[in-house]
Amino acid sequence: MAVAYWMVHAPGSLYPVNNQGDAAILFCFVFLYLVFSGPGAWSLDSRKG
Question: Which residues, including other chains, have CB under 8 Å from residue 21's CB and lie 6 or more apart?
Fold first, then answer.
């Protein structure tokens, strides 16, 4: 999503409000959080043992 923001939205303006890049930045940080937070209590691995 960071690549999508820089390739599609950023050439017009760097401000997300001006270039409709709000969703790209939001998803970028949400996916980044999910990568580092781990699977959590609802994962299949936690139910195994």
Answer: 5, 8, 9, 10
